[in-house]
Design goal:
alpha/beta, TIM Barrel, two-stranded antiparallel ribbon, 43% helix, 12% strand, globular, oxidoreductase, NAD(P)_OxRdtase_dom_sf, oxidoreductase activity
Length: 318
Protein backbone atom coordinates (compact mmCIF):
# COMPACT_ATOMS: atom_id res chain seq x y z
CA UNK A 1 0.00 0.00 0.00
CA UNK A 2 1.30 3.43 -0.96
CA UNK A 3 0.75 5.45 2.22
CA UNK A 4 0.73 9.24 2.00
CA UNK A 5 1.72 11.94 4.50
CA UNK A 6 -1.25 13.86 5.84
CA UNK A 7 -0.28 17.49 5.43
CA UNK A 8 2.88 18.22 7.38
CA UNK A 9 1.94 15.86 10.22
CA UNK A 10 3.66 12.59 11.10
CA UNK A 11 0.56 10.64 10.07
CA UNK A 12 0.85 8.30 7.09
CA UNK A 13 -2.52 7.31 5.62
CA UNK A 14 -3.80 4.99 2.93
CA UNK A 15 -4.95 6.59 -0.36
CA UNK A 16 -8.57 5.86 0.55
CA UNK A 17 -10.33 6.43 3.88
CA UNK A 18 -13.24 4.41 5.26
CA UNK A 19 -16.16 6.64 6.25
CA UNK A 20 -17.43 5.45 9.60
CA UNK A 21 -20.84 7.14 9.50
CA UNK A 22 -22.38 3.73 8.68
CA UNK A 23 -21.14 1.99 11.84
CA UNK A 24 -24.04 1.38 14.20
CA UNK A 25 -26.46 2.73 11.59
CA UNK A 26 -26.74 0.98 8.22
CA UNK A 27 -24.09 -1.52 9.36
CA UNK A 28 -24.81 -3.25 12.66
CA UNK A 29 -22.03 -4.07 15.11
CA UNK A 30 -21.22 -7.52 13.70
CA UNK A 31 -21.15 -6.22 10.12
CA UNK A 32 -19.08 -3.21 11.18
CA UNK A 33 -16.48 -5.48 12.78
CA UNK A 34 -16.22 -7.55 9.59
CA UNK A 35 -15.90 -4.38 7.48
CA UNK A 36 -13.13 -2.98 9.66
CA UNK A 37 -11.26 -6.30 9.68
CA UNK A 38 -11.50 -6.57 5.89
CA UNK A 39 -10.39 -2.96 5.44
CA UNK A 40 -7.24 -3.42 7.49
CA UNK A 41 -6.53 -6.87 6.05
CA UNK A 42 -6.66 -5.33 2.55
CA UNK A 43 -3.83 -2.98 3.56
CA UNK A 44 -5.76 0.21 4.33
CA UNK A 45 -5.28 2.03 7.62
CA UNK A 46 -7.46 5.17 7.62
CA UNK A 47 -10.90 5.36 9.31
CA UNK A 48 -12.91 8.56 9.77
CA UNK A 49 -15.80 9.09 12.15
CA UNK A 50 -17.34 11.80 14.38
CA UNK A 51 -18.91 12.09 17.80
CA UNK A 52 -22.25 13.06 16.24
CA UNK A 53 -22.56 9.85 14.16
CA UNK A 54 -25.39 8.79 14.07
CA UNK A 55 -27.52 11.21 16.08
CA UNK A 56 -29.85 11.76 13.11
CA UNK A 57 -31.28 8.24 13.49
CA UNK A 58 -34.42 8.01 15.66
CA UNK A 59 -33.44 6.62 19.04
CA UNK A 60 -29.74 7.45 18.62
CA UNK A 61 -27.95 10.02 20.76
CA UNK A 62 -24.65 10.32 18.89
CA UNK A 63 -21.50 8.39 19.64
CA UNK A 64 -22.78 5.17 18.09
CA UNK A 65 -20.05 4.98 15.44
CA UNK A 66 -17.23 5.74 17.88
CA UNK A 67 -18.58 3.13 20.27
CA UNK A 68 -18.59 0.43 17.59
CA UNK A 69 -15.05 1.34 16.52
CA UNK A 70 -13.91 1.27 20.16
CA UNK A 71 -15.34 -2.20 20.72
CA UNK A 72 -13.65 -3.39 17.54
CA UNK A 73 -10.31 -1.89 18.55
CA UNK A 74 -10.47 -3.67 21.90
CA UNK A 75 -11.57 -6.99 20.44
CA UNK A 76 -9.27 -7.02 17.41
CA UNK A 77 -6.09 -5.70 18.97
CA UNK A 78 -5.46 -3.72 15.76
CA UNK A 79 -5.14 -0.23 17.24
CA UNK A 80 -1.55 0.04 16.03
CA UNK A 81 -2.60 -0.67 12.45
CA UNK A 82 -5.14 2.12 12.04
CA UNK A 83 -5.21 5.90 11.91
CA UNK A 84 -8.39 6.98 13.69
CA UNK A 85 -9.90 10.35 12.80
CA UNK A 86 -12.89 11.80 14.60
CA UNK A 87 -14.55 15.19 14.94
CA UNK A 88 -16.04 17.65 17.41
CA UNK A 89 -18.40 20.60 17.05
CA UNK A 90 -21.69 19.39 15.60
CA UNK A 91 -24.78 19.63 17.76
CA UNK A 92 -24.88 16.76 20.26
CA UNK A 93 -27.89 18.20 22.11
CA UNK A 94 -28.24 19.85 25.51
CA UNK A 95 -25.99 22.75 24.51
CA UNK A 96 -23.11 20.48 23.48
CA UNK A 97 -22.03 22.22 20.29
CA UNK A 98 -19.24 24.40 18.91
CA UNK A 99 -15.54 24.80 19.52
CA UNK A 100 -15.21 26.58 22.86
CA UNK A 101 -12.22 25.22 24.83
CA UNK A 102 -14.31 23.87 27.71
CA UNK A 103 -16.53 21.93 25.34
CA UNK A 104 -13.59 20.59 23.31
CA UNK A 105 -12.14 19.26 26.57
CA UNK A 106 -15.43 17.60 27.48
CA UNK A 107 -15.96 16.17 24.00
CA UNK A 108 -12.46 14.73 23.54
CA UNK A 109 -12.71 12.82 26.82
CA UNK A 110 -16.04 11.36 25.73
CA UNK A 111 -14.63 10.36 22.32
CA UNK A 112 -11.54 8.77 23.88
CA UNK A 113 -13.75 6.75 26.20
CA UNK A 114 -16.05 5.58 23.40
CA UNK A 115 -13.10 4.74 21.14
CA UNK A 116 -11.37 2.91 24.02
CA UNK A 117 -8.04 4.48 23.10
CA UNK A 118 -5.53 6.80 24.79
CA UNK A 119 -4.97 9.00 21.73
CA UNK A 120 -6.92 10.25 18.72
CA UNK A 121 -4.71 10.37 15.65
CA UNK A 122 -6.60 13.15 13.87
CA UNK A 123 -9.02 15.37 15.80
CA UNK A 124 -11.09 17.63 13.55
CA UNK A 125 -13.30 20.67 13.95
CA UNK A 126 -16.51 19.39 12.36
CA UNK A 127 -17.83 22.89 11.64
CA UNK A 128 -16.46 26.38 11.87
CA UNK A 129 -17.54 28.17 15.05
CA UNK A 130 -17.59 31.87 14.24
CA UNK A 131 -18.64 32.71 17.82
CA UNK A 132 -15.37 31.39 19.26
CA UNK A 133 -12.05 33.11 18.44
CA UNK A 134 -9.82 30.88 16.37
CA UNK A 135 -6.91 31.31 18.76
CA UNK A 136 -9.01 29.95 21.63
CA UNK A 137 -10.01 26.86 19.69
CA UNK A 138 -6.48 26.24 18.42
CA UNK A 139 -5.02 26.77 21.89
CA UNK A 140 -7.43 24.15 23.26
CA UNK A 141 -6.23 21.73 20.60
CA UNK A 142 -2.61 22.62 21.41
CA UNK A 143 -3.13 21.52 24.99
CA UNK A 144 -4.54 18.19 23.85
CA UNK A 145 -1.55 17.63 21.56
CA UNK A 146 0.86 18.51 24.38
CA UNK A 147 -0.92 16.07 26.70
CA UNK A 148 -0.63 13.28 24.12
CA UNK A 149 -4.37 12.90 23.68
CA UNK A 150 -4.33 14.06 20.05
CA UNK A 151 -1.60 13.61 17.42
CA UNK A 152 -2.75 16.08 14.77
CA UNK A 153 -5.71 18.35 14.10
CA UNK A 154 -7.85 19.01 11.06
CA UNK A 155 -10.95 20.90 9.96
CA UNK A 156 -14.14 20.16 8.07
CA UNK A 157 -16.68 22.40 6.34
CA UNK A 158 -14.56 25.58 6.48
CA UNK A 159 -14.73 28.29 3.83
CA UNK A 160 -11.47 29.25 2.15
CA UNK A 161 -11.23 32.66 3.91
CA UNK A 162 -11.81 31.16 7.35
CA UNK A 163 -9.47 28.25 6.75
CA UNK A 164 -6.76 30.63 5.58
CA UNK A 165 -7.37 32.74 8.69
CA UNK A 166 -7.03 29.65 10.90
CA UNK A 167 -3.71 28.72 9.30
CA UNK A 168 -2.44 32.27 9.73
CA UNK A 169 -3.55 32.30 13.37
CA UNK A 170 -1.55 29.13 14.01
CA UNK A 171 1.50 30.71 12.39
CA UNK A 172 1.28 33.94 14.35
CA UNK A 173 0.46 32.33 17.70
CA UNK A 174 2.86 29.38 17.41
CA UNK A 175 -0.02 26.93 17.72
CA UNK A 176 -0.62 23.57 16.00
CA UNK A 177 -2.22 24.11 12.63
CA UNK A 178 -4.96 22.25 10.83
CA UNK A 179 -3.05 19.60 8.87
CA UNK A 180 -6.09 18.41 6.96
CA UNK A 181 -9.30 19.72 5.45
CA UNK A 182 -12.41 17.64 4.96
CA UNK A 183 -14.56 19.33 2.30
CA UNK A 184 -17.49 18.13 0.24
CA UNK A 185 -16.01 17.04 -3.10
CA UNK A 186 -16.97 14.59 -5.82
CA UNK A 187 -17.71 14.53 -9.54
CA UNK A 188 -20.96 16.41 -8.99
CA UNK A 189 -19.98 18.76 -6.16
CA UNK A 190 -16.89 20.45 -7.59
CA UNK A 191 -16.99 24.24 -7.67
CA UNK A 192 -16.80 25.17 -3.98
CA UNK A 193 -13.67 23.09 -3.39
CA UNK A 194 -11.92 23.65 -6.73
CA UNK A 195 -12.36 27.42 -6.92
CA UNK A 196 -10.70 28.48 -3.66
CA UNK A 197 -10.08 25.66 -1.22
CA UNK A 198 -7.98 23.44 -3.49
CA UNK A 199 -5.41 26.14 -4.38
CA UNK A 200 -5.15 27.10 -0.70
CA UNK A 201 -4.58 23.53 0.44
CA UNK A 202 -1.95 22.89 -2.24
CA UNK A 203 -0.15 26.13 -1.43
CA UNK A 204 -0.12 25.40 2.32
CA UNK A 205 0.56 21.65 1.97
CA UNK A 206 -2.64 20.72 3.76
CA UNK A 207 -3.95 17.18 3.33
CA UNK A 208 -7.40 16.85 1.77
CA UNK A 209 -9.71 14.03 2.88
CA UNK A 210 -12.93 14.91 1.09
CA UNK A 211 -16.25 13.42 2.12
CA UNK A 212 -19.16 12.20 -0.04
CA UNK A 213 -16.74 10.89 -2.68
CA UNK A 214 -19.65 8.89 -4.12
CA UNK A 215 -22.25 11.62 -3.53
CA UNK A 216 -24.13 9.48 -0.99
CA UNK A 217 -24.11 6.58 -3.44
CA UNK A 218 -25.48 8.52 -6.42
CA UNK A 219 -22.26 8.07 -8.41
CA UNK A 220 -22.51 4.29 -8.17
CA UNK A 221 -25.44 4.50 -10.57
CA UNK A 222 -27.80 3.07 -7.97
CA UNK A 223 -30.10 6.09 -8.12
CA UNK A 224 -31.26 7.09 -11.60
CA UNK A 225 -34.90 8.11 -11.05
CA UNK A 226 -36.70 9.92 -8.22
CA UNK A 227 -38.28 6.61 -7.16
CA UNK A 228 -34.81 5.12 -6.67
CA UNK A 229 -34.10 7.55 -3.84
CA UNK A 230 -36.14 5.36 -1.51
CA UNK A 231 -33.82 2.36 -2.01
CA UNK A 232 -31.86 3.12 1.15
CA UNK A 233 -31.97 5.32 4.29
CA UNK A 234 -29.21 7.50 2.86
CA UNK A 235 -30.76 7.82 -0.56
CA UNK A 236 -34.08 9.13 0.63
CA UNK A 237 -32.53 12.25 2.11
CA UNK A 238 -29.30 12.78 0.22
CA UNK A 239 -29.42 11.97 -3.48
CA UNK A 240 -32.52 13.77 -4.71
CA UNK A 241 -30.54 16.94 -5.43
CA UNK A 242 -28.42 14.98 -7.92
CA UNK A 243 -31.36 13.68 -9.96
CA UNK A 244 -31.30 16.27 -12.73
CA UNK A 245 -29.96 16.71 -16.26
CA UNK A 246 -26.40 17.35 -15.14
CA UNK A 247 -26.46 14.37 -12.80
CA UNK A 248 -27.73 12.11 -15.56
CA UNK A 249 -24.95 13.33 -17.85
CA UNK A 250 -22.35 12.46 -15.23
CA UNK A 251 -23.81 8.96 -14.84
CA UNK A 252 -23.72 8.47 -18.61
CA UNK A 253 -20.02 9.44 -18.69
CA UNK A 254 -19.28 7.15 -15.75
CA UNK A 255 -21.05 4.30 -17.53
CA UNK A 256 -18.94 4.83 -20.67
CA UNK A 257 -15.63 5.00 -18.82
CA UNK A 258 -16.53 2.06 -16.60
CA UNK A 259 -17.44 -0.06 -19.62
CA UNK A 260 -14.12 0.70 -21.30
CA UNK A 261 -12.13 0.04 -18.12
CA UNK A 262 -14.02 -3.11 -17.17
CA UNK A 263 -14.92 -1.54 -13.81
CA UNK A 264 -18.03 -0.17 -12.10
CA UNK A 265 -19.21 3.47 -12.19
CA UNK A 266 -18.55 3.82 -8.47
CA UNK A 267 -14.96 2.65 -8.84
CA UNK A 268 -14.43 5.13 -11.66
CA UNK A 269 -15.92 7.98 -9.58
CA UNK A 270 -13.49 7.25 -6.74
CA UNK A 271 -10.54 6.88 -9.10
CA UNK A 272 -11.39 10.30 -10.59
CA UNK A 273 -11.28 11.94 -7.14
CA UNK A 274 -8.02 10.19 -6.28
CA UNK A 275 -6.50 11.54 -9.48
CA UNK A 276 -7.27 15.18 -8.65
CA UNK A 277 -4.33 17.42 -7.60
CA UNK A 278 -3.93 17.83 -3.87
CA UNK A 279 -6.28 15.04 -2.81
CA UNK A 280 -4.73 12.89 -0.08
CA UNK A 281 -7.36 10.32 0.85
CA UNK A 282 -10.99 10.50 -0.29
CA UNK A 283 -13.56 9.19 2.18
CA UNK A 284 -16.07 6.57 1.07
CA UNK A 285 -18.39 4.28 2.99
CA UNK A 286 -19.54 0.70 2.62
CA UNK A 287 -22.19 -1.18 4.55
CA UNK A 288 -21.48 -4.65 3.16
CA UNK A 289 -18.42 -6.69 2.29
CA UNK A 290 -19.37 -6.57 -1.40
CA UNK A 291 -19.41 -2.78 -1.29
CA UNK A 292 -16.11 -2.75 0.56
CA UNK A 293 -14.54 -4.95 -2.13
CA UNK A 294 -15.62 -2.29 -4.65
CA UNK A 295 -13.74 0.36 -2.66
CA UNK A 296 -10.61 -1.76 -2.35
CA UNK A 297 -10.53 -2.38 -6.09
CA UNK A 298 -11.19 1.29 -6.85
CA UNK A 299 -7.99 2.28 -5.07
CA UNK A 300 -5.90 0.51 -7.71
CA UNK A 301 -7.69 1.99 -10.73
CA UNK A 302 -5.67 4.54 -12.72
CA UNK A 303 -7.70 6.50 -15.25
CA UNK A 304 -6.04 7.63 -18.47
CA UNK A 305 -6.12 11.22 -19.67
CA UNK A 306 -9.00 10.61 -22.09
CA UNK A 307 -11.19 9.15 -19.34
CA UNK A 308 -10.47 12.02 -16.97
CA UNK A 309 -11.18 14.55 -19.72
CA UNK A 310 -14.53 12.89 -20.51
CA UNK A 311 -15.53 12.97 -16.84
CA UNK A 312 -14.35 16.55 -16.41
CA UNK A 313 -16.43 17.71 -19.36
CA UNK A 314 -19.55 15.84 -18.26
CA UNK A 315 -19.32 17.19 -14.71
CA UNK A 316 -18.31 20.78 -15.46
CA UNK A 317 -20.52 23.20 -13.53
CA UNK A 318 -22.17 26.05 -15.34
Amino acid sequence: MNFRPLGQSSLQVSPLCFGGNVFGWTADEKTSFSLLDAWVDAGFNFVDTADVYSRWVPGHAGGESETVIGKWLKQSGKRGRVVIATKVGKDMGNGRIGLKPAYIREAVEASLKRLQTDVIDLYQSHDDDAATPLEETLDAFAKLVKEGKVRAIGASNYTAPRFAQALETSRKQGLPRYESLQPLYNLYDRAVFEDALAPLCRRENVGVINFYSLAAGFLTGKYRRPADADKSPRGASAVKKYLNERGTGILDALDDVARQAGRTPGQVAIAWVMAQPGITSPIASASSLDQLKELVEAASLKLDAAAIRKLNEASAEG
